[in-house]
Amino acid sequence: MKEIKHVFFDLDHTLWDFEKNSALAFEKIFEELNFNIDSKKFMDIYNPINVAYWKLYERNEIDQETLRINRVKDAFEAIGLTITLDEIHTISDLFIAYLTSNNHLIDGTIDLLEYLKEKYTLHIITNGFSSVQEVKLQKSNLDKYFVTITDSEAAGNKKPHETIFQHALTVANASKAESIMVGDSIEADVLGAINFGITAVYFNPSNEKVPNDQIIQIQKLIQLKNIL
């Protein structure tokens, strides 16, 4: 890793705790709309549905609006509650509005970034909606650590497509040999980066099975200190 000068991070699920912040957003929404729903049980249903729709979105099989609406609709159907399309739109809009009301980070995020900023230039590559991601970074005080922020809307393509990685390197004035990608998605972050030609580290807190044993992985962010 001696050649590494630039570290690129995914944001959601890697540094910014999407599950915890989402649960708090839905808890606020259910209270405001007088829905008698246990937010924890709802999130157990919602999370895998959300992940599945994000994978479709990353593969360009659905658009942003379909992602936003269908993940809510499917989650309510899965818990056996029928709501109108207007209510689905209301919940989806409130979710985006309230998502950044709380900005919990994955354990070890600040400690790791404080360590890395003295040795490397840090960057973000995210498939998230640009307007929302900017607010997340600002409200969580993460923006001060990153020199460049590349989102899929600006790059014209989403991870794992090579276009977004090339865009990120160009903006960062970095070469492939000098760069490393860290993220929680084996398909979008890790294989996307590897196929593009840069080193990748899989943030794998659940210890999911990896496609091959050559993939570098960590279960806690702080373990990245042993690599970089």
UniProtKB/TrEMBL annotation:
<dbReference type="InterPro" id="IPR023198">
    <property type="entry name" value="PGP-like_dom2"/>
</dbReference>
<dbReference type="InterPro" id="IPR041492">
    <property type="entry name" value="HAD_2"/>
</dbReference>
<dbReference type="InterPro" id="IPR036412">
    <property type="entry name" value="HAD-like_sf"/>
</dbReference>
<dbReference type="Pfam" id="PF13419">
    <property type="entry name" value="HAD_2"/>
</dbReference>
<dbReference type="InterPro" id="IPR011951">
    <property type="entry name" value="HAD-SF_hydro_IA_YjjG/PynA"/>
</dbReference>
<dbReference type="InterPro" id="IPR006439">
    <property type="entry name" value="HAD-SF_hydro_IA"/>
</dbReference>
<protein>
    <submittedName>
        <fullName>Noncanonical pyrimidine nucleotidase, YjjG family</fullName>
    </submittedName>
</protein>
<dbReference type="InterPro" id="IPR052550">
    <property type="entry name" value="Pyrimidine_5'-ntase_YjjG"/>
</dbReference>
<dbReference type="InterPro" id="IPR023214">
    <property type="entry name" value="HAD_sf"/>
</dbReference>
